[in-house]
From TrEMBL:
Protein name: Pseudouridine synthase
SUPFAM superfamilies: Alpha-L RNA-binding motif, Pseudouridine synthase
CDD domains per the UniProt record, alphabetical: PseudoU_synth_RsuA (cd02553), S4 (cd00165)
Keyword annotations: Isomerase, RNA-binding
Length: 234
């Protein structure tokens, strides 16, 4: 790897600032000052220091967060804080949400800089189950609830779509609180499914993705890195 790229990968420096640091004599390679940006670095064996501090490449990261309301899953700064603004990790801007949550939706959010792993989680082909808890505007019970359960199990044709949703599982915890398990990730899917059933979602919370469950002791806004077992479960 080129030395200037190594610096930009391991520090907040851009490539141009990395070249400036090299010209200023701030960088050493195996104890020797180096000024040539194109110098090749053995990332496994060479020792690179910036102003005396040893640098190391950031490996792949896998993070879970209990996303609170009024936090966005976007990379661009907007009206609300971003999830990556909450996470204290080097090069946090490289982390990408593994399936977004709306700004008003809470619950389990996974983030990673491992694109292949992210694809395994989100690809419809892998049918990864996602469990949501929906607070409904109108109660559904009796025959209406049973019809809704059957419609969801068969698949619902959402407005503007050409194919129905994949079979899903609906369970009513109370007449106005429902647990919905889906294996897709269509745009605003849960809210649109309940709208197709003649209801409205007042609040939405994602409880789990695959075998990874949001821990009870992870408060809104808190995060932690996934365990090796959780990473391997996808």
């Amino acid at each position: 790897m080129r030395l200037d790229r190594f610096l930009s990968e391991t520090t907040p420096l851009t490539r141009s600032l990395a070249k400036r640091a090299l010209k200023n004599g701030e960088v050493t390679l195996n104890g020797e000052p180096i000024k040539q940006a194109a110098t090749q670095v053995d990332t496994e064996n060479d020792e690179v220091k910036l102003n005396g501090e040893r640098l190391a490449l950031v490996g792949l990261r896998y993070v879970m967060m209990h996303k609170p309301v009024d936090v966005e899953c976007t990379a661009r700064r907007g009206l609300y804080p971003r999830v990556i603004d909450i996470i204290d990790l080097p090069k946090v801007e490289r982390l990408q949400p593994v399936g977004r949550l709306d700004v008003d939706t809470t619950g389990l959010l996974l983030l990673t800089d491992d694109g292949q792993w992210s694809h395994r989680v989100t690809s419809p082909r892998h049918r990864c189950a996602k469990v949501y808890i929906a607070e409904l505007a109108e109660p559904m019970e009796g025959e209406a609830a049973q019809q809704a359960i059957e419609q969801v199990a068969e698949g619902i044709l959402l407005e503007g779509e050409e194919t129905p949703t994949q079979p899903a599982t609906l369970r009513f915890i109370t007449p106005q609180q429902a647990e919905l398990t889906i294996t897709e990730g269509r745009y605003h899917q849960v809210k649109r499914m309940f709208a197709a059933l003649g209801n409205h979602v007042n609040a939405l919370h994602r409880r789990s993705i695959g075998d990874v469950l949001l821990p009870d002791d992870l408060a809104p806004g808190e995060w932690r890195e996934l365990t090796p077992e959780e990473i391997a479960s996808f």
